[in-house]
Amino acid sequence: MLKDAEKTIGKMIDKAGTCFISYTDEEGFPVTKAMLRPREREGIATLWFSTNTSSNKVKCYRKNNKASVYLVDKRFFRGASLIGTVEVLETAEAKRRIWQTGDTMYYKQGVTDPDYCVLKFTAEKGRYYSNFKSVDFEI
User: In which residue ranges of the chain is pLDDT below 50?
Assistant: First the structure.
């Protein structure tokens, strides 16, 4: 069912328009948020997202860095959940690394905007769903 997790899920990441990222709020409840697909990836183990420093998810990740990312392939009705941790990065290097033309639409002051940061998600394991079956895998 899942011969090569890196290849199969890597393609899902590359083709995704959006994905879903989850965190735990201050009261211990899970929260899921739609995000644009990762700006960059290192296999399926490390995903890089841009976001607002002032966002609720950043505040929550600073207190509890456990996270999950969910990808959906609507065409073939399959999905993959990656489980791991998030680092909130505000270094100039991290911000420049994933900056794209047009990002000033979100971050008016450019790459140095204090409300721009990077989420570095590091996956430890995952679960893949396809053809009415699920399989767990390690990363």
Answer: none
